[in-house]
Amino acid sequence: MNWLQDLFISLLSPWIPIMGKIRPKVRYFLLTACFVADLVLFCIVRYVLLKESYFYNTACGIFLMLLIALLSLDKKLERKPWRTSVSIAWFGMCAAFTVSDLFVSKKACGLGIILAFVFTGVFFVWQNNSRKDLLWKSFKNAVKGSFLLMAVISFLFRPFFEGGRYAGIFTNPNTFGLYLYVIFAVYMSDLDWNVETGKTFKKSFFTYVQLALVLFYLSVSQARTAMLAIGSILILWIVLRLYMGKKQGMFRGFVKGFLSLAVVTVLCYPLFYAGVRHLPELVGHKMMFDEDVLYLSNGEKIEDIGDKVLAESDAFESIDLPEKTLEDNSIWGRLVKSLDSSETLNKISSGRITIYKAYMKKLNLWGHKRVRLIINGKKVSHAHNNWLQFAYTYGVVSMLFYTVITVLSLIRSIIFYTTNRRRNATYAFLIPAICVGFVAATMTECLFLPFEVFPAFAYWFAFGDMFETTLEEKEAAE
Questions:
Q1: DSSP state of 83
Q2: Which residues of 301-330 are buried (b: 16+ CB within 10 A; e: fewer)?
């Protein structure tokens, strides 16, 4: 991959003196602003540009990534050794996406090129930066600042309906929950940092309160996918901290941090609940959106508009699933038949089994033009599973590469934490938290376009630290 790194060096090196003239504080402020803009990109495109399409989101997203790369330049760019396994899987996946785009014209095209050149370019710049911890601090500050602003708006203006599910400033509680998973990962990395460095309860108090607020929002949103993702992150942190505690012979910091989080969460819950129930009424300016959907606690919703992942307006591919089908002894046929046997599971999963069956029946080698599918006359916005969505949109080969990437992200992110938790304590846990939470969430939801949904952006962005081969601390070799 030396030729690609040389390309990045030739394109970006002329900007180093220009960026050097900008004061560091200003650069980090602008970098944080870029991440904030990416976080709310869908709002910028829709309400500022008055557009709603994949093209405009992608164009704005690429521009923001270019700014992030330029603002992250601080010294001479040099070649960096990239991990062979991650590089082969990453660029193989990107190539598979691109080949599918060439054979089948898509609404959501160019993902392979964006990941291979745009994201990898930012990875390369960050690997050359002398203070990567400050770069990740900008990312975390963007997420935390946006969350606190969203919380203020929600408490003051977004009403909570008794018997319904809360969506914050979003129109869908499930979408709200998916963003909460990234926010939880950011604050858990702060908590891990506090435990690792032995910070006092007083200095960590604000972190506990914000984590308690995230958990409160999760409970009132009742987003099952987000619960799975956040639960996975919490379990991961407990397991890793127990492992580290056993290795170091000390559990005091972990136990203190965990109990403090539990106590603060329990104490803050009634305060937060009273706030969402009564503050909007006291303010008297309730904020309602045209696309608001009231999701009830029993799973029903007043208006069925689905979970939009990609704005698509023209014809969709359609499939009908009869109750009884002919015997099919193929691998896919046996798998579909096994899913057929549990009608209860289909109801529990909000019809996902039917969706999975429909998408599996449509899988092919080169993929499809659309993300959506019409199943038994009803529009379904996506496959509610990343593996199926990649297989449907980009072909079966792409799904295989994505599976390898998924496995590597879990393994390499955890290794990154265990070998960098001291040197990069401020963000060491953020990488595995994002990866583990993302994999858990994408078992039942679809998140893959980085400039359409921020959780997908966070996942692809986390790979930058997994590309490097020189991450291990000296203690790991002892």
A1: P
A2: beeeeebbbbbbeeebeeeeeeeeeeeeee
Check if the beta carbon of residue 361 is closer than 8 Å to that of residue 383.
no
Q: How many CB atoms lie within 10 A of CB 74?
A: 17
The pair of three-digit structure tokens given for residue 424, joined into one six-digit string: 């990069």
Both tokens of residue 74?
């601080």
Contact yes or no for 436/233 (Cβ under 8 A): yes
d(CA 31, CA 108): 27
Pairing of strands 378-380, 373-375: antiparallel
Residues sharing a CB contact under 8 Å with residue 356, sequence separation 6 or more, in sequence order: 339, 383, 384, 385, 388
* pLDDT tens digits, 294-332: 666 555 555 543 444 555 545 566 666 665 444 555 555
Vertex 388 angle, CA 386 and 390, to 5°: 65
pLDDT 10s digits, 64-121: 999 999 999 998 999 999 999 999 999 999 999 999 999 998 877 899 999 999 999 9
Whole-model pTM: value is 0.88
Element holding 378 (H helix, E strand): strand 378-380
* H or E element, residue 103: helix 84-103
Measured distance CA(303)–CA(305) in Å, rounded: 6
Number of Cβ within a 10 Å radius of residue 405: 22
- Please answer whether residues 398 and 390 qualify as being in contact, where contact means their C-beta atoms are separated by less than 8 angstroms: yes
Q: Is the separation of the CB atoms in 211 and 191 below 8 Å? A: yes
What DSSP character marks residue 75? Answer: S
Question: What does 387-419 look like in DSSP terms, one character per residue?
Answer: HHHHHHHH-HHHHHHHHHHHHHHHHHHHHHHHH
CA distance linking residue 68 with residue 434, whole number of Å: 20
Helix (H) or strand (E) holding 207: helix 201-221
**Using an 8 Å Cβ cutoff, are 357 and 328 in contact?**
no
Residue count of the chain, please give it. Answer: 478
CA 478 to chain centre: 35
Q: Are 216 and 268 in contact (CB under 8 A)?
A: yes
d(CA 461, CA 115): 9
**Cβ of 7: how many Cβ atoms within 10 Å?**
13
